[in-house]
Amino acid sequence: MDSFLMKGYIKEANIDYSCSRGSMEDLPKWEFREIPKVPRAVMPSLSLEERKNNFNEVELGLSEEVARKEARRCLKCGCSARFTCDLRKEASNHGIVYEEPIHDRPYIPKVDDHPFIVRDHNKCISCGRCIAACAEIEGPGVLTFYMKNGRQLVGTKSGLPLRDTDCVSCGQCVTACPCAALDYRRERGKVVRAINDPKKTVVGFVAPAVRSLISNTFGVSYEEASPFMAGLLKKLGFDKVFDFTFAADLTIVEETTEFLSRIQNKGVMPQFTSCCPGWINFVEKRYPEIIPHLSTCKSPQMMMGATVKNHYAKLMGINKEDLFVVSIVPCLAKKYEAARPEFIHDGIRDVDAVLTTTEMLEMMELADIKPSEVVPQEFDEPYKQVSGAGILFGASGGVAEAALRMAVEKLTGKVLTDHLEFEEIRGFEGVKESTIDVNGTKVRVAVVSGLKNAEPIIEKILNGVDVGYDLIEVMACPGGCICGAGHPVPEKIDSLEKRQQVLVNIDKVSKYRKSQENPDILRLYNEFYGEPNSPLAHELLHTHYTP
Ligand code: HC1
Ligand code: SF4
Fold first, then answer.
1. Which range in 32-41, 82-91, 153-162 is most confidently predicted, on average pLDDT?
2. Are strands 441-449 and 323-329 parallel, antiparallel or unpaired?
3. Residue 85 — φ and ψ, nearest 5°?
4. CB within 8 A of 236, min separation 6: which ones?
5. Which of 223, 227, 348, 490 is the most buried (most CB within 10 A)?
């Protein structure tokens, strides 16, 4: 094991990082010296909750108030982990003493080569977790170590700015970084400015997966998670709060209609889902040849933005420029998606700002809102009703399951009353599959999460091999959006299984369990879009892709 001294950050350390970073001897500018092993700090085995609340008190014997200040001081890295910081926990377990940074290494300016991901080499401890996350968890593998002036730094394999590589903007590298050397630019300020502008009507809509985190973080039951979120956003100053799940329902109606039409008209098959912008970026950058297989449907985020900016603005008599639309999501790629030029018309974005779940929690903390002060509320009209199928979108398999609940009904011409659950395509495996026999017609479905798991299927399609599927759902993050980089890191507050369970439970008790039954969706078609895949639906709810 290497013992080393990282000047400015850690006074003494005997952590073994060698598994992920190679020998410390490669780093000539750093000082190394053998130090005796320090006995582990006394850390009785605590539950996650206890550790979150008592970490510093146990460790330092300080009052909570002082302990909180100490934790903030910590590495001054600016990340939001604080009490649940992996690096801090490891350091404490090894008896490492933190010091103020002494800046004796030359300062390296922040690398700002991506629309929102920022790298700060000065905070990097060369643990390699970001590189592994990109290559092994997600798949694109665009990051690597390199040496410059005797320092080991993280950069892109090609040497190009991150924005010009195959980076899909999923942000899993940011989640993996234990000390905020990789972080993302916040959009909180934009939102607060809009809230404080009396001319603006600020509308928020909350993604399906956000409620899984809310339920587990604040200990509210799954039934109370949605009203809690709506109440929280109202308290933060939003004028109207809608449920994003409504747009998931809209997506299912549009996408399943497209799927059935491809079957009927012998269109390009298999059809891939298109709601994950990380996946879309991957296709556009690395496999543009399979674009014809992508559904032309916009993601629910962009369907919601277009619907609010066109339908809601008209309904309420609000000028588009006075309507400030914010989506609240567990995803970083959605920041990239909302800023794409095809979703900006006459300088006005369909979605003006994208907040992550983490940013929403940060705003709550900055506004000093205690959970007990949140008054649960219903979502607002006219997009109030949502289905359990739409809620399932937040976990891997959910989009395909919701589509099947509609496709089976349309193919049989009979209302589906039982066997609504397609459990075989739920869960955390990289590839799941199922074949549903609908009156002799077989619908073959695959569900993929983690982009590297999609590559073998794509390669087969490109080589003209029948992959044996009609519909393929792909979500970039392992397990789907519940593992998105805009959520706090899983396993700190809760687990992915618990997040998934919240969504499954909400679906079970939902009044409507099929997207096509949602009465607010049916009314929207009657009043505005006409019918699924109509010319207006194509204009506002579908898109094109750019190789
Ligand atoms: Fe997702 Fe989706 S499910 S992509 O994970 O299709 O972010 O939750 O909002 O758009 O609805 C994310 C979640 C989300 C979209 C929907
Ligand atoms: Fe975003 Fe979800 Fe795709 Fe991850 S899986 S990139 S969170 S949309």
1. 153-162
2. unpaired
3. -70, 125
4. 195, 360, 363, 364, 367, 369
5. 490
Tens digits of residue pLDDT in 122-153: 888 888 999 999 999 899 999 999 998 888 99
Q: What angle, rounded to 10 degrees, do the helices at 496-509 and 210-218 form? A: 110
SS (H, E, C) 420-477: CCCHHHCCCCCEEEEEEEECCEEEEEEEEECHHHHHHHHHHHHCCCCCCCCEEEEECC
Rounded Cα distance between 68 and 244, Å, is 35
Q: Please say whether the beta carbons of 132 and 20 come within 8 A.
A: yes
Contacts 24+ apart (CB under 8 A), 338-343: 338/301, 338/302, 338/305, 339/115, 342/543, 342/544, 343/302, 343/305, 343/306
Does the global pTM surpass 0.95?
no
Q: Which of 328, 385, 376 is nearest to 510 (CA)?
A: 385
- SS3 assignment for 14-67: CCCCHHHHCCHHHCCCCECCCCCCCCCCCCCCCCHHHHHHHHHHHHHCCCHHHH
Ligand 1, residues at Cβ distance < 6 Å:
207-209, 244, 247-248, 275-276, 299-301, 329-331, 334, 393-394, 480-481, 484
Residue 374, CA distances (Å) to 232, 364, 377 in order: 6, 10, 9
Tokens (6 digits) for 99: 């010091």
Angle between helices 48-60 and 64-73 (to 10 degrees): 90
| In contact, 281 and 333? CB cutoff 8 Å | yes
Cα 160 to chain centroid, rounded: 25
One-letter amino acid of 499: R
Indicate which ligand has the atom closest to the C-alpha of 449: 2
CB-based pocket (< 6 A), ligand 2: 170, 276-278, 330-331, 333-334, 475-477, 480-481, 484
Categorize the per-residue pLDDT at 546 as very low, low, confident or very high, splitting at 50, 70 and 90: confident
- As a whole number, mean pLDDT of residues 56-65 equals 40
In the DSSP assignment, the letter for residue 105 is S
pLDDT at 416: 86
Residue owning tokens 């395909």: 400
Q: What are phi and psi of 484, to 5 degrees?
A: -65, 155
